[in-house]
Design goal:
Family: Belongs to the alanine or glycine:cation symporter (AGCS) (TC 2.A.25) family.
Number of domains: 1
Radius of gyration: 22 Å
Strand content: under 5%
CATH topology: Amino acid/polyamine transporter I
Distance between the termini: 37 Å
CATH class: Mainly Alpha
CATH superfamily: Amino acid/polyamine transporter I
Membrane topology: Multi-pass membrane protein
Largest sheet: 2 strands, antiparallel
Oligomer: single chain
Shape: globular
InterPro entries: Na/Ala_symport
Number of helices: 22
Protein name: Alanine:cation symporter family protein
Number of strands: 4
Order of helices and strands: HHEEHHHHHHEEHHHHHHHHHHHHHH
Structural class: mainly alpha
Keywords: Cell inner membrane, Cell membrane, Membrane, Signal, Symport, Transmembrane, Transmembrane helix, Transport
């Protein structure tokens, strides 16, 4: 099967390379023109906004933020009280090599984080501060903390209702707790749960192709081309083929290989980025107290509050699928593969995902932008260029390092979302391995396409599909929250008694 898929992929890639070199002009414009009406309609519906203090607040954003608030209160601030136990899980205190699953706690977390850490941490934060001022940083941190509770619920459910196959591989995530969980606890709503699961799976497939594959590859190519001295200017297809082959080498191996790669890649790229931020902060150590006061003070004036909502929760998180993806349900697909007999333990580990992604990495980016004053000096400069300028004020060579980091961020997101999309396709095809490998092959072909196209309309469509995922996912989470609450109480009792399964 793998050889046949490999041959199919090689043929498709060769065809795409030939097409990309074709003298026929305007193919990307025609594709975008065909997609634009659809993407515009979906975007207008999903991001329907209500006026608020001179700006607009999309209802989908309120849907996600409200979930974070409700789950934080319903589970009695699990985002704080579960943190220490989550660290012990990551440290390996409760590892059980004989438990069903494919990856360790750390590998599961790193796989999920690899799908969330990306351009939102670099460009999205800069957009937030540009729109809302330094006070946006405060609201960004708050959003990350609330997202921890949402992530806990969805990853617990993903593991609770996962499917363990005879060969030991795992299929889990919202598709399974929407169909199996709702059907088990609400028999009259079984059909409704299957409909929710189907909608979620379809949106995951197309969202993965657009936002996880095409967009990430496109941005990786743009960054490398910008520092290649013109070498890659007319070689988008070549770059795309190399990128797809590397991604395919990891993706074909499934979550086990993804976990092995991301367990090394994610800590390395995060540590490199954080170390660079710490160097900048150390060079401006005397300005740190004033910067913190500016952030806190600006957060509570009207411009800071509204700007924080617009900049962080809309522009910043939308550009990277809400950065930590809390409420979208995607991370539950990765966390459900953890080796454990305790579903709640997977949810506990998931607390670290928004914490690392938003509270640490996004906050470090924000502090660098604020403390260097780049947000005041960079008139007309925004997004990743503003972040790059802030770092370059201390380290002139940083734009080259940033290009490398963007490549790593994009690559890690590509392989993780390829796995998410393949699992969604497999669910729709009743766990067909042929469909799973076929989707992976098609996904890698579209990665090459992404490097050769203008993606504005397609990315808008993919963004809309990603946000649609939050609607069926959160409906299911609300219905099944009492199940998680019972499981949490029983699990913590077993932890106290030393009788975990």
């Amino acid at each position: 099967m793998i050889k046949r898929v490999g041959a199919l992929l090689a043929g498709c890639l060769a065809s795409m390379a030939a097409a990309a070199q074709s003298p026929e002009p305007g193919i990307d414009e025609r594709i975008n023109a065909a997609v634009t009406p659809v993407s515009t309609a979906i975007s207008d519906a999903i991001f329907y906004a209500i006026p608020m203090h001179g700006t607009e607040f999309p209802l989908i954003v309120g849907w996600l933020v409200l979930a974070g608030i409700i789950f934080t209160l319903y589970f009695r601030f699990i985002n704080f009280r579960g943190f220490t136990h989550a660290f012990r899980l990551l440290r390996g205190d409760y590892n059980d090599p004989k438990a069903p699953g494919e990856v360790t706690y750390f590998q599961g977390l790193s796989s999920a984080v690899s799908g969330t850490v990306g351009l939102g941490n670099i460009a999205g934060v800069a957009v937030a501060i540009t729109l809302g001022g330094p006070g946006a940083t405060f609201w960004m941190i708050l959003a990350g903390i609330l997202g921890m509770a949402t992530k806990f619920v969805e990853c617990t459910l993903g593991t609770q209702y996962r499917l363990v196959k005879p060969d030991g591989t795992i299929s889990g995530g919202p598709m399974y707790y929407l169909s199996r969980g709702i059907g088990e606890h609400y028999p009259k709503l079984r059909g409704f749960g299957i409909v929710l699961a189907t909608i979620f799976a379809i949106c995951t497939m197309f969202g993965a192709i657009g936002a996880g594959g095409m967009f990430q590859a496109n941005q990786a190519y743009a960054q490398i081309a910008s520092i290649s001295g013109g070498f890659f200017d007319d070689k988008a297809a070549l770059f795309g083929i190399i990128y797809a082959i590397l991604a395919g080498a990891v993706l074909i191996g499934g979550i086990s290989r993804i976990g092995q790669v991301t367990a090394k890649l994610v800590p390395s790229m995060a540590a490199l980025y954080i170390l660079s931020a710490l160097v900048v902060l150390a060079m401006h150590a005397a300005d740190i107290p004033a910067a913190l006061m500016t952030i806190i003070g600006d957060a509570f004036n009207p411009e800071g509050v509204v700007g924080g909502i617009v900049g962080t929760l809309i522009m910043g998180f939308r550009r990277a699928a809400f950065s930590n993806e809390a409420g979208l349900g995607s991370s539950a697909i990765a966390h459900s593969t953890i080796r454990t007999r305790e579903p709640v333990s997977a949810g506990m580990v998931a607390l670290f995902e928004p914490f690392v992604d938003t509270v640490i990495i996004c906050t470090m980016t924000a502090l660098v932008i604020v403390i260097t004053g780049a947000y005041m000096q960079g008139e007309g400069v925004e997004g990743v260029r503003l972040t790059s300028m802030a770092f370059a004020s201390v380290m002139p060579w940083f734009p080259y390092l940033l290009a490398f980091l963007v490549l790593l961020f994009a690559f890690s997101t590509t392989i993780t979302w390829g796995y998410y999309g393949a699992k969604a396709a497999s669910f729709l095809a009743r766990e067909s391995n042929a469909v799973l490998y076929g989707f992976k092959a098609f996904y890698l072909v579209m990665v090459v396409v992404g490097c050769t196209m203008q993606l504005s309309a397609i990315v808008d469509l993919a963004d809309g599909l990603l946000f649609i995922m939050a609607i069926p996912n959160l409906i299911g989470m609300y219905l099944l929250a009492p199940v998680v609450k019972r499981e949490l109480a029983a699990y913590m009792e077993r932890v106290r008694n030393g009788t975990t399964r």
